[in-house]
Design brief:
Blueprint: E1 2-7, E2 13-18, E3 24-26, H1 30-52, H2 80-108
Length: 122
């Protein structure tokens, strides 16, 4: 395995490893950030669906979908409380992902090796 450094947008460098097949594996610490971003994206999608789509028109894979109400008629309105909860979950997931990413980049910064020619006398 060969150690290699990956540059990041702000000039920081992330440590990574290259396997025998040339695939680069980033540190396992980033898995939490990736999962939080995916959770935030799914919660954002659900929040938008709950706020914009009527109850009777919700997709069947989203909780709260009801074909008919208690009196045999399609229910009216939107599920605003569920949309608000999904929006809060999305914001919390994105904020936690940002904080975690900041902490990882902050601790993984690679300092350059000291230059042997500096301070050498001739």
């Amino acid at each position: 395995m060969v150690d290699r450094a990956l540059p990041v947008a702000n000039g920081a460098v992330l440590a990574s490893e290259e396997s025998a097949w040339g695939v680069v594996f980033i540190s396992m610490k980033w898995i939490g950030v990736i999962l939080l971003v995916i959770l935030g994206a799914l919660a954002t999608y659900c929040a938008i669906e709950y706020f914009t789509v009527a109850i009777h028109a919700l997709p069947s894979y989203i909780p709260g979908h009801e074909a008919l109400g208690p009196h045999g008629h399609p229910p009216k309105g939107h599920l605003r409380k569920r949309g608000a909860v999904a929006a809060v979950i999305a914001v919390v997931a994105f904020v936690l992902a940002g904080i975690l990413a900041y902490r990882i980049v902050k601790t993984d910064k690679v300092t350059p090796a000291p230059d042997p020619s500096v301070g050498a006398t001739v």
